[in-house]
């Protein structure tokens, strides 16, 4: 799998495929300097070669993976949005609308927090 199109084609459910495309398109429009790539068969966005946010598809939700530091920092906002989360990911149920304000907050946090990062993942 090399392209976002290839990734989207693996999503059998049309509603889920459309939702993922909308989220990826929203990030691309609002963060044009971020690089959209596929790694480990998942779409992710990079800034100067460092990971900012990634996504994966599950039966009941879209998983958002921003690294544990972002989840720890924004835990109260994630809870207020009504999303379940673990140390590694946030679960956005397919039945719920996308909280783009939260998504923006997560991306902005990681861009700022990793501005001087020289590695793919935080150390």
TrEMBL record:
Indicate the segments forming the YdhG-like domain, all copies. Answer: 16-111
> Per its UniProt record, what InterPro entries does this chain match?
YdhG-like
Q: What is this protein called?
A: YdhG-like domain-containing protein
Please spell out the taxonomic lineage of the organism that makes this protein.
Bacteria, Bacillati, Bacillota, Bacilli, Bacillales
Q: Which domain of life is it from?
A: Bacteria
